[in-house]
Amino acid sequence: MTADPGIKPNTDGLPGLPALRHMIGALLPFGLAVCVAVFVISAAAWGLGSINGNAGYASKGKFGCLVAVGAAILISSANGIIRFFSGIQIA
Questions:
Q1: Most CB atoms closer than 10 Å: which of 4, 5, 30, 78?
Q2: What pLDDT, in 10s, does the model give residues 11-51?
Q3: Helical pair 55-76 and 17-51, crossing angle rounded to 10 deg
Q4: How confident is the model at residue 83 (pLDDT cuts 50, 70, 90)?
C-alpha cells in the first residue's frame, strides 16, 4: 500500500516557468539538428569503412546511426513520453 502525500504539481509556484518552457522548446530543434549531423557523419563512416574493408569503422558507423535515430526519436517524443508517464497536462 502506498500513501498519497497530497502534493500536486504547481505551475505558478516559481517565477520564470513560461520562459523556461520557451527556452527548452527552442532547444529541441537544435537537438534534432545535431542528431541529423551525427547520422550523416556516422553513415559516411559506415560507408567508407565498408568500402575500405575496415570492419571497425563500419561497425562504429552502424552504431552511430542507430544512436542518432534513437536520440531523434526520444527528443521528438519527449513531451508525449513525459505526459504519458507523469499524468501531468503539459500546455
A1: 78
A2: 777 788 888 889 998 999 999 999 999 999 999 999 999 99
A3: 160
A4: confident
Q: Give the pLDDT of residue 1.
A: 59
Residue 51, domain member (yes or no): yes
Is the separation of the CB atoms in 90 and 82 below 8 Å? yes
Could you list the residue range(s) of the whole structural domain that residue 61 is in? Answer: 26-70
Q: How many angstroms separate the Cα of 71 from the Cα of each of 7, 9, 36, 51? A: 32, 28, 10, 27
65 falls within a domain:
yes
Is 34 a domain residue? Answer: yes
Nearest to 42 by CA among 56, 69, 63: 63
Hey, how many other C-beta atoms are within 10 angstroms of the C-beta on 33? Answer: 11
